[in-house]
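Today's session is about reading a structure prediction critically. Students often jump straight to the picture, but the first step is always the sequence itself: look for stretches that repeat, for charged clusters, for runs of hydrophobic residues. Only then move on to the predicted structure, which in these notes is written as discrete structure tokens rather than atom positions. Here is the chain we will use throughout the hour.
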Amino acid sequence: MLTDFLIIGGGVIGLNIARHLRRLYPGASVQLLEKELDCGLHASGRNSGVLHAGFYYSPDSLKAKFTWQGNRLLTEYCESKGIPLNKCGKLVVAKDQSDHAGLDELARRGKLNGIPLESISEAEAKTIEPRVKTCERALFSPATSTVDPTLVMEAMKNDALKEGVQIHCGVRYQRSSQNRVVTTSGVFEGGYVVNAAGLYADRIAREFGFSQHYRILPFKGLYLYSSEPAKAIRTNIYPVPDLKNPFLGVHFTVAASGKIKIGPTAIPALWREHYGGMANFHWNELVEVALRGMGLLVTSNFDFKTLAMREITKYSKTTMVSLASQLAEGIKPEHYQVWGKPGIRAQLVDIKKRKLEMDFVLEGDKRSMHVLNAVSPAFTCSLPFSEYVCQQITATLK
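Below is the predicted structure for this chain, in token form.
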């Protein structure tokens, strides 16, 4: 099949790249491959649904550039589609005085990134959420909200189809050769390839000569769901994060429905789609991930061993509840007994520098573009980030 543009991966980034390419090149054929039977069945449909504001990220990063813009654009999109939003905000709290420096750094980044962010007292935090626990002060992000990501993905897929994107679900990429991409449903040829394959983006990129010193390391994210009534907690509550790692720690998320969950974990997965049991098991992936993990245990520029051991303990509901109880009053184990649907974070590792990549990573040329690290907050950033990817594609084609 001849095509002008071929997008591999039907997640939130792949869909929106396809949509923007149709707008940039209205006469072009845009084909999208999704190996699953529907779009958004992996990270895009399994994420927390939080629309982040963007004060965590270094001002010189792509994440900082696109998160606040993406928050506003995605909010407008949801409102235009009638998709419910819970504009409940977010509190970032301090467990003790040692966290105050972290609050100050987040406030500094928020100011540099142009994000509305309020430094408040403990008493003021309790007027926002009476059950919150914080030491002396906190930060409040009024622009943070939550949405059901599956509803967003459904709307974006429908928009893509209406706009002329040809979506092929249940079609798996197999290999590439010169200007030909071989799939389980035939050969696509002649087009520019955009690789937005998430957990498999690094593998596909290597077939095009990219991702030479990058590899995906999968981390499993689990949430525990509360049996308390909706809005038993009014706002998202987060701890001060360790900004050296891309994980935000166990926190409270108030879903669009008002229901509460705690998490997520960041447990090293044993293979790329290791959601549970032996589903999607691949022996070669187990070996690959195990060897990579052992290499990081021996040497890395972050303490992978401590991170891994700390996260593995979060398979325990007791541990999760204990961590959450540091953030809010009245957190009872009997209210947190049901695990939600797990997600897998496709975290990119620089295997030469032995470090986790903290920002989005793109590599490409006149033949292809590869989205190698589209981790959180990629869902929030999806609209402006996808436009940025298309700008890079256009620049390479000139």
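Discussion point for the tutorial: The mean pLDDT is 95.
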